[in-house]
Amino acid sequence: MRRLQHLNNLKPLALFCCVLLAACAPLKDEPAAAKPIQQQDIVLPPEAKLTAQQWPDSTWWKHYNDPQLNALIAHALAHSPSIALAHARVAQARSDVALIESGTQLKVNAMAEINEAHVSGNGYLGPFAEDRPRLGTSGPWYTEGIVGLGATLDIDLWGEHRDRLDAIMGVENAHKLEEKAVQLEISADVAQLYYGIQTNYQVTQRLEKLKQSETFVLNSHEARAARGLESHADAEMAKTMLLTIDQQLSMAKQQRVAFRESLRALSGGGERPEIRPMPLPVAQTQLPSSLNYQLLARRPDLQAAHWYVQSSMKQIDAAKAAFYPTFDIKAFFGFDALHMDDLFDHASQQANIVPGLYLPIFSGGQLEANLDKTRHQRDMLISQYNQAVLTAVKDVVTTGSALQSLQEEQALQDEKVSSAAAGMSNAKARFQRGLISEAMADEAQRQWLSAQIKQIEMQGQRISKDILLNKALGGGKV
């Protein structure tokens, strides 16, 4: 008999356990997820000529030894709106971390309430609607007062809050790395614009000299045509060449203005000191000996994308935990009285402790949709990460290859400049001996100037590719 009674006492507990198990919304089987690309999956083309060159450091632009460039980059990194925006995103993510972290902390609120109520004579408080002092009722109007402290504590049984915290911390880490990526982007853009201006200065200087030479040729042809020694066709051809040079000078001026304005926008606006002409440096960056895990570790944009993937996986864990019951504890301690005069009497003290269990029995498909959403977001982020890795490898290989090709082309162009310089010196010497005309000697000078302009433009392209290669390699240790 006692055993039967004991079994009867266990029925409510068994029923509760059955309800608890049935209440947990069923989880769907997870479909095959996308996989992040691994270092062994980074395959380089056979034509990529890797060297023993070291990776760039965090201040890679300083190896150009140009104080003007150093000052410009320092100013841009301190005042660029893009840097301010990236910094604000990091601060916002840090606030989100603190907000999620507070979810499982004890929360205590002070409360005070006055409730002027008219009690219904036909409700379950009907006896209090009558005025019977002997029974302690003075209805139907009451002025109830409540004052005290309320507390709430959420118990993270299944780690949902912890997973959400880890997810938002992953986003914070991603934003920090995005800030570094923005710094790398700005420093590379400033360096490219700066050397674009320096290249423009040197090309303009040679074009001015070439214009003087073409002006002399035009004047010579016009003088001979005026004396009937030749037709006006040669003068017109010389005029066409002079107009072409004027067009090039105008385009160079317009390009220099565009470079300066772009540089001003990157640096946060305001007046900047005039950039003085400086000689162009020699590009020295080469491809490192390997491009596997080091590239993944050095590129801040790839590291940020990886943190987004990690964050999405934690969001999936949190979405799964939402299918299970949640538990919290609410408490109140204070005073509650139907008459304000009795509010702070000892008999008006009230204490409540309310443990609560919440079971997700029917959610209308909300939990399932949220889990599917987080899984799709993870797959999208993994695909974006994989594409970013492949694009990064492509950028490094193509930029390094282009830099190597430019080095070979410039070596040939340097030989052409040397040959043109030797030809110009020979022509001047022959002119001084009266062996050739001044026009022929001037033609040799124009060929030398044209070869120099091509040489400067090629050197500017090499520096531009050198900057892009430093950027593609991550610019330094993350």
Automatic annotation (TrEMBL):
Compartments it resides in: Cell outer membrane
Signal sequence, renumbered to the chain: 1-22
Membrane topology (UniProt): Lipid-anchor
Claim: Signal is one of the keywords in the record: yes
Keyword NADP in record: no
Transmembrane residue ranges: none
Pfam families named in the record: OEP (PF02321)
Keyword tags: Lipoprotein, Membrane, Palmitate, Signal, Transmembrane, Transmembrane beta strand
Main location per the UniProt record: membrane
Function: Could be involved in resistance to puromycin, acriflavine and tetraphenylarsonium chloride.
Similarity field: Belongs to the outer membrane factor (OMF) (TC 1.B.17) family.
Protein's name according to its UniProt entry: Efflux transporter outer membrane subunit
Species name: Scandinavium lactucae
Source lineage: Bacteria, Pseudomonadati, Pseudomonadota, Gammaproteobacteria, Enterobacterales
